[in-house]
Amino acid sequence: MTSRTRGLVGLTTILGVFACSGARSPALEPKSSFQPVGSALLERHDVPGAVIAQIELGQVVSVEGLGYADLETETPVTGDTVFQAGSVSKSVAAWALMKLAQEERIELDIPLTYYLRPWPLPSTPQSALLTLRRVLSHTGGTNVPGYLGFGPGENVQTLRESIRGATDAHDARLEIERTPGTDWKYSGGGYTLAELVAEVVSGRHFPDLAYRTVLAPLGMTRSSFRRPGSRTPHRLATSYAKDATPVPLRRYAARAAAGLYTTGNDLAKWVAALLVGPAPQLPGRGVITPHTVAMMLSPQPASDCDLLFSGCRFGLGYALARLDGTRDEMLVYHPGDNLPGWHSFVAAIPSRRSGFAILTNGAGGRALRLDAFCTWLASQNSGTLPECQGGRYVAPKSAD
C-alpha cells in the first residue's frame, strides 16, 4: 500500500464517527465565492458558462452561475440551467444499482451471467468472474472506455444493440479483455452492462428506475437520464466546441454511463446527500443507508488507478484519493466528459462534510473544472494533492 492510499481503509470508520455527531448546524456561508474569480476562469479557458456549487457541514451553501448558457441569446447560467453531466452519470447510476443491491434484488458478488440470459457478451470462462462489484469499481476487465453519443437524426441504439456493437464507440463490441478482479481499467461499457441488469431485475427502463429511486427522493426533480422534453428547452444550456461554435445535442444509448441531465442545484443536493448533514440527516439521506454509502466509499480490490490524481483507488462508483498532509482525510470524486463541450466534476471530503460540484458547457471546461476544484480544495484548510498547485491543476507526469 502506497503512502498516498494508506488510510483509505479507515474511511468507513470516519463515516461512522461523523454519523454519530449529529449537532444541528447554523446558517452557513461558503468559505469562498467563485464570483470574483469566475470571469477570469471563464476567460482563461474560453468557456461560455459554468455553475459551481459548494457544500459545508453536509448542506448546500452556494450555487453560483457564471457566464452564459447560450451565447446567441445571452441567456445567463443559473442554478436551474440544465447541463449534460457526462461520466458523473456513473456515480449517480451507482446509487440506483446499490439501491437494488441493498434491497437484495441483485448481489454484488454473484456473476452477472446469472441475471442476463442469454448472455450478451462473448461467452468465455472469464464471464463467470464478472460481478456488479467489479463493474462499479472498473475492475471487471471490460472494454469500451466511453461513448460519443448520437447526433440529430441518428437512431439511438438499444442497450443490447450497443453491447453487441456500439456505433457511437467505433462499433466496438463489449468484451472482457482482462481477467476480472486483477486490475483497474476504466470502462463505460461495464456500466452499460450494469444498466441492462438493472432493467432486467427491476422490470423498469433505467431512466424511470433512477428517477423513482434516487433523483425524486433527493429532490432532484429537474434531473433525468432522459433528454429534457419540449417543456424545458429554455433551461437546457448549449454546449460549444473549442472555436465557440455550437455543438448539436447528442443522445446516449448508454445512459448509466453518460446520459444524465442535471442542474447545479440538483447536483449539489446529490453531493450533499453523500455526507452527514444537520441532525438527523445521515449519509444516503434515506435513499441508501449509511452502510451502503460506506461500502461505496471503500477501496475495492485491485482498484489502484490514475484517474486525474496519482495514487487513487476506486470504490463503487467513486474514485478515492488520500489528501497529503493529513492522517486519514479522503477525497471522493468523479469527473465527467461528454465531448466536446460538456465537462463536469464532483468532489467531497466526508470527514469535513464538505463538497464541490461544477458543470460547464465549453470545450475548455475540461481544464476549468479542475482549476476551480483546486481553488476550492485550497479553501478547505485540509490536505493537498500534488496535482493542485497554486489554484491550478497540473497533470501527473504519468498521465497520457
Strand % is 15-25%
The strands making up the biggest β-sheet line up spatially as 3-2-1-12-11-10-9-8
Q: For the CA atoms, what is the radius of gyration?
A: 20 Å
Return the domain count.
1
Q: What is the helix fraction of residues, given as a range?
A: 25-40%
CATH hierarchy: architecture: 3-Layer(aba) Sandwich
Q: What is the 3D form?
A: globular
CATH superfamily: DD-peptidase/beta-lactamase superfamily
Uncertain segments: 1-26
The overall pLDDT, averaged over residues, is: 91
CATH level 1 name: Alpha Beta
CATH topology: Beta-lactamase
Give helix and strand order, one letter per element, not per position: HHEEEEHHHHHEEHEHHEEEEEHEE
What's the total count of β strands?
Answer: 14
SS content category? alpha+beta
Distance between the termini: 24 Å
Task: Give a quick rundown of the structure.
With 400 residues, the protein is an alpha+beta fold. It has eleven helices and 14 strands.
Would you give an account of this structure?
- Helix 3 packs parallel to helix 6 and helix 3 crosses helix 7.
- The longest helix has 15 residues, at 88-102.
- The chain is 27% helix and 16% strand.
- It has helices at 11-19, 35-45, 88-102, 132-136, 159-164, 188-202, 206-215, 255-258, 264-273, 290-296, 365-379, and strands at residues 49-56, 59-70, 75-76, 82-84, 239-240, 246-247, 261-263, 313-314, 319-322, 330-338, 342-349, 354-360, 388-389, 392-393.
- By secondary structure, the protein is of the alpha+beta class.
- The protein has one domain (8-393): Beta-lactamase.
- The chain is globular and about 55 Å long.
- The protein has an 8-stranded antiparallel sheet with strand order 3-2-1-12-11-10-9-8, sandwiched between helices.
- It is built from 11 helices and 14 strands.
